[in-house]
Write a structure and sequence with these properties.
With about 280 residues, this protein is an alpha/beta fold. The chain has eleven helices and ten strands.
Amino acid sequence: MRNVTLNNGAEMPILGFGVYQIPAEETEQAVTQALAAGYRLLDTAAAYGNEEAVGRAIKNSGIPREELFVTTKLWIQDAPAQENARRAFETSLARLGLDHIDLYLMHQPYGDVYGQWRAMEALNREGLARTIGVANFHPDRLVDLIVNNEITPAVNQVETHPFFQRTADQELMRERGVQIQSWAGFAEGRNNLFHQPLLSEIGAEHGKSVAQVVLRWLVQRGVVAIPKSVRPERMAENIDVFDFALTDDQMAAVATLETGASLFFDHRDPAMVDWLAKLRVDA
């Protein structure tokens, strides 16, 4: 497994296992199988409702804690955000059954972002959140957070896949010392991704699946990916992307699939902001 080095010196696997949309009752088995397949980066969130199941899988795995890189996320907090963010973190930590989190992300760029970030900075200084970052921050919001706070986010987890490639955003993040991480790396199968002719052709040239081509494309770009599956054979397939490489021509060909727009929702859409702000997570 390749690692990326974050801006605080922490080493993070470039390929991990995500549990978004895996029902809580299926998560423990899925994470157990993922760990057996070799994954050491696990990504969950308070909003996913399955932190406890992830924690049980970690506890029962027998894998030394220092070999794992565990991410969870802070949902939008009501005022006083700074106080409530710490309480939410402590709830997540208890649900996971851990004594620290390797990466704690602000899940959405809404609410009292500064109050939430100050709480996260304090957790980082105390060693409870070894690394802190954000998710779904567009470049303007990311730069605003960086220039007005002491700690620069180590990671920004954003929608990134062949149809929405975020190359300009990634370059800005690189300049600012922020690691890009992909969610929905497979675009959740939209635009018929798993049967896309160009990706299928590239896969055939390497004897690999479309999923493996997409993950290899992300890895070669330096994008951390967290594919999800509940099928052990798919987990094994998804992690098996380090024995081949896309050529420069193939990387350029994949670049032509860019649509320039989200396939899911725009975090700058007022209706989406309003909808997300009304969601509450038990913490």
